[in-house]
Specification:
By secondary structure, the chain is mainly α. The chain has one domain: Four Helix Bundle (Hemerythrin (Met), subunit A). The protein has 8 helices and no strands. The structure holds protoporphyrin IX containing FE. Protoporphyrin IX containing FE (HEM) binds next to helix 2, helix 3, helix 5, helix 6 and helix 7. InterPro entries: DUF2306_membrane. This is DUF2306 domain-containing protein.
Amino acid sequence: MKGDPMDSVREILTEEAEHPPAAPPKPSVPKPGRRELTWVGFLAVYCVGFAVFGIYRYLTLDPSISRLGIRTDLPWHYPLFITHIYTAVVSIVLAWIQVWPWFRARHPRAHRIVGRWYFFAGVFPSAALAIPAALLTVSGPDVRLALLAMDACWIITMICGYRTARQRKFGEHRKWMLRNVAMTTSTVTLRPLNIILVETGMSYEQAYASATWGAVLGHLLFVEWYLLRPKKKRRPVPGRRS
Ligand code: HEM
């Protein structure tokens, strides 16, 4: 009988201990083009810029400098309101990273980690707290309804985005997350819209409600157009079989 079979096992184990298998190579992904860098850069400034603008009045935890009215009859209104804002800031600071195609393809692990923070420290708590925050708004019933509709879209797209990721239906996940990020960023668009509508002579409450509806519908229409638009055919590369 030839040598002990355990010898070859030992040999393999020693070989592996001395030369551990290399980490799997990172996927080779071409560098992002100028067009991609332009829109990602714009989106990053839109998101991070608004996060700074959104939070700075609430850093001192002083309700008297809040941009919106706080209910003095409910002592928990302000804590609830600012917890919504702090968690919303997490979501908007991370939103642009998650929709960046190059980042997703080149760093899939980082995409998953950032995605968990986006969901669990950002959209989930923020969207949940937005329900009582909307119900308690001091800006009247039209604003209340518009904010609740905005939140419903945020919550539905969040649940669908999360479920499709868990089910590993990545094509569907991408679409739902684009819709969800469209909702996260609609809060930015509503601010300048609000100012424009006030300038046209609307009352503050009318402008606030219309700007909220306008931003939600505008962002949803844009993202649906983006998903449904006819895709350009790729030019065949000479010498490569299709
Ligand atoms: C898109 C889904 C969102 C919904 C449904 C929502 C809902 C709300 C509601 C109901 C209020 C209270 C409004 C009032 O009292 O009249 C509020 C205030 C606020 N939210 Fe959100 N929010 C969303 C996203 C965000 C995001 C992504 C940010 C990012 C920073 C954000 C930042 C703020 C700020 C800063 C306020 C206080 C108002 C101000 O200072 O201008 N929200 N939000």
